[in-house]
Write a structure and sequence with these properties.
- The chain has a domain at 3-175: 3-Layer(aba) Sandwich (Peroxisomal Thiolase, Chain A, domain 1).
- It is 32% helix and 22% strand.
- It has helices at 20-23, 31-38, 53-67, 92-100, 118-131, 157-160, 208-212, 234-238, 248-270, 287-297, 308-311, 318-328; strands spanning 3-12, 16-19, 42-45, 77-81, 108-112, 138-144, 166-175, 181-189, 197-198, 245-246, 279-282, 337-344, 348-355.
- The strands form four sheets. A five-stranded mixed β-sheet has the order 1-7-6-4-5, sandwiched between helices. It has a four-stranded mixed β-sheet with strand order 8-13-12-11, sandwiched between helices. The chain has a two-stranded antiparallel sheet with strand order 2-3.
- A hairpin with a 3-residue loop joins strand 12 and strand 13.
- Helix 3 (53-67) packs across helix 4 and helix 9 packs parallel to helix 10 (287-297).
- The radius of gyration is 20 Å and the shape is globular.
- It starts with a strand and ends with a strand.
């Protein structure tokens, strides 16, 4: 078995920067209110009708492919992580393949729906494919275009102010260099409180999970219809239920507990300690969460990379964008121990240790 390594990394964020003051013009909020709760100063939005989750992912992928020293046609397998796909189906993996111009190669494409932890989950999958010798060049992409599906009203501000658009990508290849590459990945989930952070409608549930959880709300389902009548209703549109929802305090408390746990689990598995970490790249969920976890782990500022201030939460794209930025800045060097961690809707969470 080979070890696997990140052989190339790339990222892309749209040109349009949207500040907190910009958002205050369309909803009741302020720069002070947003920064105090999230640490975010601005985020990027893709250009409508010209940029999509798949096209942004393609731009990041091309950079990663070039840096890995290969051509698009050398890619053996595609893994695409997102919660904001171009289409309900098919997934973005095949759209990325088409954008890269490698449709004739019959490359496999796998779509990951693990929201904020999607990239870490995808990295674990890529690691296994390469270690077993099944593939030599796995392209892993995390990309999001949240701006097309947010509620730009005061009702939706708690969620809307957090998210931004962008993409990150890596090429995972085998390495024979002893001690180099992905040392371990740890993945977890707990669906007990799935509805605490969810995009509930539209969906095929027809109210089933809500009823089972004792969540009472009339979404306007016409239960007398033999066919249809439950996917999208007028009531959902009128009352703003076609948007993401989040119980922020619940998510915060769970995240700050699970982040340190899964990081320590990875370190224990590799026989390492927190003090061995050269760079910690957390999923950019909330600057306050990152700072809280940093304090628990007793890491200094030079050991943690945060960029949520500039880009907001780009969910599946946040880890690769931040990792790429850290590497480009020279903060991640050959031989460094890099720790990645993410926590998100589901709930799902995971970590990865990489010897760069």
């Amino acid at each position: 078995m080979f070890n696997s390594k990140i052989a190339g990394i790339g990222s892309y964020v749209p040109e349009k920067a949207v500040t907190n003051d910009d958002l205050s013009k369309v909803m009741e909020t302020s720069d002070e209110w947003i920064q105090e709760r999230t640490g975010i100063k601005e985020r990027r939005y893709g250009e409508k009708h010209k940029e999509t989750t798949a096209t942004m992912g393609t731009k990041a992928a091309r950079i990663a492919i070039e840096r890995a020293g290969i051509q698009p046609e050398d890619v053996d397998f595609i893994i695409f992580a997102t919660l904001s796909p171009d289409y309900y189906f098919p997934g973005c993996g095949v759209l990325l393949q088409r954008e890269l111009g490698i449709t004739g190669t019959e490359v496999g494409a796998l779509d990951i729906r693990n929201q904020c932890s999607g990239f870490v989950y995808g990295l674990s999958i890529a690691d296994q494919f390469v270690k077993t010798g099944m593939y030599k060049n796995v392209l892993l992409v995390g990309a999001e275009m949240h701006s097309m599906g947010l509620d730009y009203s005061t009702q939706g501000r708690n969620v809307t102010v957090i998210f931004g658009d962008g993409a990150g990508a890596v090429v995972v290849q085998p390495t024979e260099k002893e001690g180099q590459g992905i040392l371990t990945t740890k993945l977890h989930s707990d669906g007990t409180y799935a509805e605490k952070l969810a995009f509930i409608n539209p969906g095929s549930h027809g109210g089933y999970h809500l009823d089972k959880m004792g969540i009472e709300y009339d979404y306007g389902y016409d239960k007398d219809l033999e066919y249809g009548g439950i996917f999208i209703t007028d009531k959902m549109q009128e009352e703003g239920h076609l948007y993401p929802n989040m119980e922020g305090q619940f998510v915060f408390k769970l995240a700050v507990r699970k982040f340190p746990e899964v990081i320590q689990e990875a370190l224990n598995s590799a026989g390492l300690q927190v003090s061995d970490i050269d760079m910690f790249v957390p999923h950019q969920a909330n600057l306050r969460i990152s700072q809280f976890v940093q304090k628990i782990l007793k890491l200094n500022d030079d050991q943690v990379w945060n960029n949520i201030q500039k880009y907001g939460n780009t969910t599946a794209a946040s880890v690769p964008i931040a990792l790429c930025e850290a590497w480009e800045a020279g903060a991640v060097k050959e031989g460094d121990l890099v720790c990645l961690a993410a926590f998100g809707s589901g709930f799902t969470w995971g970590s990865a240790l990489i010897r760069w």
